[in-house]
Specification:
globular; alpha+beta; about 300 residues; about 25% helix
């Protein structure tokens, strides 16, 4: 059992079922974000630095970069799927009908060279059903959990569990680590404690480094002010940053500015850990902004 997230149904992509549309594109076709040429981070996404239709690549990247399952990212890959429940009419709808209308945003060119999100229209006088669309997106292992961090106090979580999430988010510069994106599994041997499973990494690895204090829900948890364990310290110091960059470039075709930001965040994390800083020190003083309206 798994969770499939089609690239063309992501927020502000052409077939988003909720019709999310950037305000600048309404009534102004020239402002509609395109899906080709450069990493246009301002092309209508929820966060700058990533194009609609490419969040699924980040979902896969988080799993590929979670070496040895240190941070417990569920198994994730790219997949193709057809199903009547998948939304395919958005690119043919007007804005008033709920269509996204912001251009063709998809990963079809960078991954396979094939058009995997083209719908075959059916004439209005035809009685035959429209052809099912083959879509590409991320496919993630379904994880059973007791609840999310929405529902429990951080005091129920061990230092090591919090650190593994923080390390992942700092490496990826994840801009969407809210409490609903951390699943909690009760530990049978100690029912009062929980194992954390991070999900939803679509707003990681962006071309713009504007992560603010409120993007990391763990930043005000007391655990991040505690020293790292020898296991966590060894994990960070032994990360092969250039090997990880090669994976992102060769397998997911991420752009150079994204790779540079990833390289820099990992270098900062490693340098801070080597200097004996806590994760709180590294995150709050170096990697994220305390003033969301200021410069990075």
């Amino acid at each position: 059992v798994g969770v499939f997230k089609p690239a063309d149904e992501e927020p502000f992509a052409e077939n988003n079922p909720r019709g999310y549309v950037p305000h600048s594109s309404i009534g102004n076709p020239s402002n509609m974000g395109g899906g080709d040429g450069g990493n246009d981070g301002d092309a209508g996404g929820l966060r700058q630095g990533i194009r609609p239709g490419e969040l699924c690549l980040r979902e896969v990247a988080a799993y590929l970069l979670d070496h040895g399952g240190f941070s417990s990212v569920p198994m994730t890959t790219l997949a193709e799927a057809r199903h009547p429940a998948l939304h395919s009419a958005g690119s043919n709808w007007t804005l008033s009908e709920g269509g996204a209308g912001v251009g063709a945003h998809s990963i079809r060119a960078s991954i396979s060279g094939a058009d995997l999100s083209t719908i075959v229209s059916t004439p209005s006088n035809s009685t035959s059903p429209p052809e099912l669309v083959k879509k590409v997106g991320s496919f993630q292992e379904y994880v059973t959990a007791e609840c999310t961090m929405d529902d429990i106090s951080p005091s129920k979580i061990t230092v090591g569990e919090v650190h593994k999430i923080a390390i992942l988010d700092m490496r990826l510069m994840n801009a969407d680590r809210n409490v609903a994106n951390i699943l909690c599994q009760r530990i049978p041997e100690d029912p009062d404690q929980f194992r954390l499973v991070p999900i939803d990494h679509g707003y990681s690895l962006r071309s713009k480094c504007d992560v603010a204090w409120f993007d990391w829900c763990w930043l005000d948890w007391p655990q991040v002010k505690e020293p790292l364990s020898e296991e966590a310290r060894s994990y960070v110091l032994n990360l092969d940053i250039e090997a990880d960059v090669a994976v992102l470039e060769e397998r997911l075709k991420l752009e150079n500015d994204v790779l540079d930001n990833f390289r820099n965040s990992c270098l900062v994390l490693k340098a801070g850990v080597k200097a004996g800083l806590t994760l709180y020190d590294i995150a709050s003083e170096i990697l994220c902004r305390n003033d969301p309206s200021g410069e990075t």
